């Protein structure tokens, strides 16, 4: 239905547009620090990470991209990491690294001449998994010594890192985060870039707290700049063989609203494509508006944003979620909402007037990109498109 436009999967190759500023900043930051990409869902973190990998590789800098969403234990994580370091294209540490592994792990005794073959790597993985299945912590200590020997620079990109932590048992997660923190300290030759679609701060809250990740340099990824957003739209128009005009680019941006969230732009454009395919019309500003109101904000668009609502239930306590819902419902109908009114709503729905709890909840909603308070004392939805959607399904008119 929407498969001709890259909605959903990360944008790569010709589909990846700009992000030059962010890319340059990340590349210069990893010379000294580990990087954590911070952005709401769907802002293009994975696309940026894949682009960083490509650009480092094209300059002959060893770099690996690991998607760790399916990792459920420290042992699996370490297995993935070690095999990635062995697979790492063009890295000079491989042979030394591998023989050091052999000294620590009795099972890891392969013929080094086969290091580049898939069979070698498959065996290595299964040996490592077996070695790390019990007492991973003791063995991990030896692994950081070996990784510490890498002179690098090698860049390791970990996508969906918070999900891997979430998947681990609490006790393992806690120990793992401490181990990983130490690994970063003792291995100056390896730089990590981590990111993910769930907020790492929520995830570490109960398993070690911020202290276990406070060495990462946080890099915020915002929406597209206006000119970049317009060029994304133009790019899609050309790809579809539609006639592009600045007016129509403007119409798309007006619907999406600032910040120009890549995914939101793509949702609108794929809605436009469906409309054009079905009705045979020609894209125009009026058609964009119609698509926005009828398709995106209509019932078939409901699923695009549903996770924003569901997430309140998952990440917030029941009391908080109830108060958050009531506040968001009200903010969605007001252009902006005075803090004192938000507090009243909070008091009625939270079950107490605890001001710290109120401030905490607002900080959370802000951090999770539901609301902003650019104007002090006033609350607004972070995204126009999300606000429009919220107003339809969850408006509160009490
Ligand atoms: N630089 C870009 N150029 C073109 N399209 C982009 C770009 N970045 C993101 N997009 C669009 O936004 C969508 C989401 O991008 P991506 O998967 O990289 O985001 P993400 O932040 O990793 O999402 P998630 O939080 O779900 O992991 C893509 O499918 C694509 O349509
Ligand atoms: Mg992603």
Assembly type: single chain
Largest sheet: 5 strands, parallel
CATH architecture of the largest domain: 3-Layer(aba) Sandwich
CATH superfamily of the largest domain: P-loop containing nucleotide triphosphate hydrolases
The CATH class of the largest domain turns out to be Alpha Beta
- Strand composition percent: 5-15%
Bound molecules: adenosine-5'-triphosphate, magnesium ion
- Measure the end-to-end span: 39 Å
Q: Give me the secondary-structure category.
A: alpha/beta
Characterize this entry briefly.
It contains 18 helices and 8 strands. It is of the alpha/beta class and about 400 residues long. The chain has a 5-stranded parallel sheet with strand order 2-3-4-1-5, with helices on both faces. Strands 6-8-7 form a 3-stranded antiparallel sheet.
Overview of the molecule:
This protein has 398 residues and is of the alpha/beta class. Helices cover 57% and strands 8% of the residues. A 5-stranded parallel beta sheet has the order 2-3-4-1-5, with helices on both faces. Helix 3 packs antiparallel against helix 5, helix 6 (136-148) runs parallel beside helix 8 (170-186) and helix 12 (262-279) crosses helix 13. It is globular, with a radius of gyration of 24 Å. The chain binds adenosine-5'-triphosphate and magnesium ion.
């Amino acid at each position: 239905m929407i498969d001709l436009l890259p909605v959903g999967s990360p944008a790569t190759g010709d589909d990846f547009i700009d992000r030059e500023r962010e890319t340059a900043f990340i590349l210069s930051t990893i010379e000294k620090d580990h990087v954590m990409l911070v952005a709401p869902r769907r802002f293009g973190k994975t696309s940026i990470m894949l682009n960083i990998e490509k650009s480092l590789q094209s300059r002959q800098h060893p770099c690996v991209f690991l998607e760790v969403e399916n990792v459920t234990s420290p042992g699996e994580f370490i297995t993935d990491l070690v095999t990635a370091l062995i697979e790492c294209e063009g890295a000079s540490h491989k042979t030394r690294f591998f023989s050091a592994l052999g000294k620590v792990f009795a099972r890891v005794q392969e013929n080094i001449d086969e290091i580049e073959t898939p069979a070698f790597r498959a065996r290595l993985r299964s040996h490592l998994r077996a070695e790390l299945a019990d007492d991973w912590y003791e063995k991990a200590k030896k692994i950081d010594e070996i990784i510490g020997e890498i002179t690098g620079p090698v860049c390791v990109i970990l996508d969906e890192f918070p999900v891997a932590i979430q998947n681990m048992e609490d006790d393992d997660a806690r120990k793992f985060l401490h181990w990983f923190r130490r690994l970063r300290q003792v291995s100056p030759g390896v730089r990590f870039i981590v990111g993910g679609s769930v907020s790492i701060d929520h995830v570490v809250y109960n398993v070690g707290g911020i202290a276990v990740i406070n060495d990462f340099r946080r890099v915020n990824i915002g929406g597209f700049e206006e000119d970049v957003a317009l060029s994304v739209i133009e790019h899609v128009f050309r790809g579809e063989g539609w006639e592009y005009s600045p007016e129509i680019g403007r119409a798309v941006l007006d619907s999406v609203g600032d910040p120009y969230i890549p995914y939101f732009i793509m949702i609108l454009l794929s809605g436009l494509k469906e409309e054009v395919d079905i009705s045979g019309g020609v894209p125009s500003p009026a058609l964009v508006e119609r698509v926005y109101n009828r398709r995106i904000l209509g019932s078939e668009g409901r699923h695009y944003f549903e996770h924003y609502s569901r997430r309140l239930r998952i990440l917030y306590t029941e009391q908080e979620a109830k108060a958050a819902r009531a506040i968001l419902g009200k903010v969605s109908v007001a252009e902006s909402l005075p803090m004192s009114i938000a507090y009243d709503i909070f008091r009625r729905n939270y079950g107490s007037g605890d001001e710290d709890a109120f401030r905490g909840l607002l900080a959370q909603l802000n951090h999770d990109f539901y609301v902003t308070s650019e104007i002090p004392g006033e609350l607004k939805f972070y995204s126009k498109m999300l606000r429009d959607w919220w107003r339809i399904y969850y408006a509160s008119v009490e």
